[in-house]
From TrEMBL:
The lineage of its organism: Bacteria, Pseudomonadati, Thermodesulfobacteriota, Desulfovibrionia, Desulfovibrionales. It comes from Oleidesulfovibrio alaskensis (strain ATCC BAA-1058 / DSM 17464 / G20). NCBIfam families: TmcD_fam. This is WD40-like beta Propeller containing protein.
Amino acid sequence: MQLPDAWDWESGERTIMASTAPQEGHLWQEELQASPDGERFAAVTALDETTFSLRINDQTQEATYDKIWLPRFSPDGRLTALVQEDGEWTMLVEEEAWPGHYGYLWSTMFGPSGDIAAPAQQDGEYGMVLNGTPWETLYENANNYCISPAGGKTAAVVQTRSMGQADVATFQEGIYSVAVNGEAWPVNFVNCWTPVFSADGRRVAVQVRRNLHDYTIAVDGTPWTINYQCVWEPCFHPSSGGVAAPVRQNGMWGVALDGQMLWKARNAQCWNLRYSPDGSHLWAVVAPEYGMFTVSLDDTPWTFRAPVVTDMVLSPSGDRAAALASDNNTLWQVVVDGKPWRGTYDMAWQPVFSPDGTRVAARVERNGKYVVLLDGAPAAEAFDTAFDPVFSPDGRKLLLRGVRNGKAVRIVKQLQ
């Protein structure tokens, strides 16, 4: 499939589907999904009560299935869906199905290098399937699945020891570990959460619970020597390979790097660590005071505060950040560099930076209508359904995708 450099970036509006209503003879149709380039819109369509297919623009695939779930376009534009035949599930990529079938698949995952993966259950055991190849070893319990950004690897928290009902002693000895491509670390913990790959995919860090009271970070199976009251998801420094994580000491939260305090424990909460690409900056969502959140850059929080701050995203260089904030009463706003855009909305989605980091766009919804904001102002008329905006590689144009007046359209706007 084409990547952004090869997309059609000619300014103007094109109608991709003249009507998004179910096609003649179809019983019903699920919600549309848009490809990254806006050239294709897809949806599950019911041919009858027990037969389903995929509609792409105004065509319907010839293949039919007993069930179809979670149609999604990959970042490189391939249409995927989980499909069921004769009670078993597999992954459909465009019109080619993975060779194996499973008791169940869910939660399609995409890697930056083009990998497609999904958690799987087969005969009561759990693992992952990567590009159609399942783990050789499956486990009686697996969760917290992840995929390597470098490609070729998946990981998950797995249960390596069986435990009977109310078997507290075995649980406290440790029954969980991390499996990478199906191979478990030779060490167990009471609990593990959120395994994270390094950028090159060679290392994995994870939150662990060592006993009923002590938590720390383990890297490739080796835990830090320091224990904490609690920890959250770790992240790798992009160049040094060090591992940073939010940690709780004496009832307050800070950041530790390889087991040594980097940010003093002085926040009521701290999570969602993100390094800039060159590793010179570290960002996080923090609560300097109980119940009021903001974004912190190198341990210096924004002055902006809100009961909810989420979906933090960094500019390509990592020197700017944007996030969503809520008053905890269903109203949302977009915050960039600590300054909220005017207006509140019923819903908002993670902002998008331009390639040079100078501009920000975001999709918002109010009263059932969707608008794409550009630097805080509407970029076009409202849609009935909209998808996240996409900047052109040179940052001079903005692609909008959505449904308006029953038509699926793609709009390329020249930016001033």
